[in-house]
Specification:
Aspartate Aminotransferase, domain 2; seven-stranded mixed β-sheet; 18 helices; 13 strands; Pyridoxal phosphate-dependent transferase; pyridoxal phosphate
């Protein structure tokens, strides 16, 4: 081994060892381990992938194009844009009620592309404090100023916008743009953006109209709205949001993402987004998998699965919050549920459910569930604040009532044991 590589390995080992001691070392499970588990962790919310229905639809799509070639051959800025990809983008723009669409290899790539290239010098990005890491990466590479507002807090948003207007005369005169960055369903708390109120606040505070609302629909695409067209389509706000990101790797069960915007923004991304310019265009297999997913979304099968997912979510919440032990567990701060105050009032629920534990206890609860063959994921710092460690449960359309009930019972068993341990220390 070269001396330089040996030194590098020692440095990296020390960093990883420190993370291990803090209980934050990420060790992804093996495929063999996951195969033994009931899935309460993946983002396959409609169970399109795990059920096999997406595979069957994908194979039928391949049969329609027997002379397909796998590779695209080049990047989008050269000769990598094939007719099949163009056709998908036109259809997805129509499906989501947008002027145009641009397909990306991943939602992460798409967010970095948007935020590093579209806001211009002199513009300001006002963002929810819990937006995804990919948006932060994009903003860091971009040229606009940034300001955050408290999560889902419209009063904080209003205050933030007023500060921007007070501090920036060019914004106040309408010479530059305020971008407002949101998510639909937030991936760590499982709560939803109050988009109607946010639109109203932005319109009131920026009466000159020099704003662009941007939303990441990673966790809502396919799950809500007409034919699963998303959160913004559900509320009929397509004209209010200048840029929307719809990912395909969650409810659609495949991969990739599509940015919905006008033709000028699409052309700007093609000219300036490095993840487009310097990446091979999506392959036929990737695009056909996405088309198969969208075909299912618009079908009776897709509607049934959306309905069943919502039923399963409400059953989980009901089982958990009505359990006789839940009040004591909350009172002793063994567990908390960020979405408990609002879930009964919502027209629909996000598939992500966060159970916040005391720091370091999330791994113990996750292991207790995994021993019973139920897979859940953990989230700790830096994914969430140091005091907000949690297990992250994802409910699926194909989770059974028995399995949902069993998960809640196991959570109760573990939590009550923690109460006994806590009381013995008093």
């Amino acid at each position: 081994m070269a001396p330089g590589l040996d030194i590098l390995n020692q440095k990296l080992h020390a960093v990883l060892e420190n993370r291990r001691k803090e209980g934050r070392l990420i060790m992804p499970p093996s495929a063999a381990t996951l195969a033994e588990m009931r899935d309460f962790g993946s983002n396959d919310g409609l169970s399109l992938s795990s059920s096999g229905v997406l595979s069957a639809t994908f194979l039928r799509e391949l049969e329609k194009h027997p002379s397909f070639t796998i590779g695209s051959g080049s990047s989008r800025i050269l000769d990598g844009t094939q007719h099949y990809l163009e056709s998908l983008e036109r259809d997805l723009a129509q499906f989501h009620g947008a002027e145009s669409a641009l397909f990306f290899n991943s939602g992460f790539d798409a967010n970095v592309a948007i935020w590093s290239t579209i806001p211009q010098p002199g513009d300001v990005i006002v963002y929810d404090e819990l937006i995804h890491a990919s948006i932060h990466d994009g903003m860091k590479r971009g040229r606009a100023a940034t300001a955050l507002f408290l999560h889902n807090d419209c009063a904080s948003l209003r205050s933030c916008l007023r500060d921007v207007l007070d501090q920036d005369p060019a914004i106040a005169k309408g010479e530059h743009i305020v971008f407002v960055a949101l998510e639909s369903f937030y991936s760590m708390d499982g709560d939803m953006s109050p988009v109607l109120e946010i639109v109203q606040v932005v319109q009131e505070e920026l009466p000159l109209g020099n704003y662009v609302l941007v939303i990441d629909e990673a966790h809502s695409n396919g799950l809500v709205g007409p034919n699963g067209s998303g959160y913004i389509c559900h509320y009929g706000l397509e004209q209010e949001f200048g840029i929307r990101l719809q990912t395909c790797g969650k409810a659609l069960g495949s991969t990739g993402a599509v940015v919905l915007a006008n033709g000028t923004i699409k052309l700007s991304l093609l000219n300036y987004a490095r993840s487009v310019m310097f990446s091979t265009a999506p392959s036929f297999l990737t695009v056909s998998g996405v088309r198969a997913g969208y075909e299912l979304l618009a079908s009776e099968e897709g509607e049934k699965r959306r309905h069943r997912l919502q039923q399963n979510l409400r059953y989980f919440y009901q089982c958990l919050t009505e359990s006789p032990w839940w009040g004591s567990v909350k009172q002793q701060r063994i567990l908390s549920l960020p979405t408990e105050p609002t879930w009964e009032m919502e027209p629909f629920l996000a598939p992500v459910i966060a159970l916040v534990t005391q720091p370091g206890m999330e791994t113990k609860l996750a292991e207790y569930l995994r021993q019973a063959k139920y897979w859940v994921n953990t989230a700790n710092f830096p994914l969430v604040p140091k005091t907000k460690s949690r297990i992250r449960i994802v409910i699926h359309a194909d989770n059974t009532i028995d399995d949902i009930g069993a998960v809640v019972r196991l959570i109760g068993e573990w939590a009550q044991r923690q109460m006994i341990v806590a009381s013995s220390k008093i």
